[in-house]
Amino acid sequence: MHVRMLTGGLAAACLLSVSLTGGQAAAAVSSTALAPPAARVVTYDASGSAEFKNAVNRGAAIWNESVDAVELRPAAAGQRANIRVLADNGWPRALPTTLGNGTVYIGRQAVDQGYDTIRISAHELGHILGLPDRKPGPCSSLMSGSTAGTSCTNPYPNAAEKAEVEGNFGGALAGRAQVARAGVIVD
Prior knowledge:
This protein is of the alpha/beta class. The protein has six helices and eight strands. The chain has helices spanning 9-13, 31-34, 53-66, 108-112, 117-128, 159-168, and strands at 15-20, 23-28, 40-48, 70-74, 83-88, 93-96, 102-107, 185-186.
């Protein structure tokens, strides 16, 4: 679990004193020098996710616990969300448009077959965060999706998946252009 660091007032209050031969110099430490970059906020609207709303909220919370560079928040009333989450009778899928934007469908077909709703939610949100399917794959890989089988209920990204999302939203790849991702990712 990642712990977000306190920034702003606390960092600005830090003062570095340096003793020099023949005098003293003091320099205020910039809050940006001490603090990691702020997380990019991506909003989601789960109002159309019907009976899966709690699973969607839990999937978003799992990503928030797992990475620092992006934070998924429910959209405020009247706010246009980056991600729309809908329930339908098909197979779960994500339609990313650009990084952090798109539509997720929590399909009842997979749920009816016994797949875990929280794993489905976290997996589909992973696509919106820039992750591809990794099929076939073990249960320890969130992005292995349905190939891990109905007995797999692991909703947590593994270390490589976390690192990829961190890189997508700043991390080591800060400043790179966001490339639109067209198409549908069906799991």
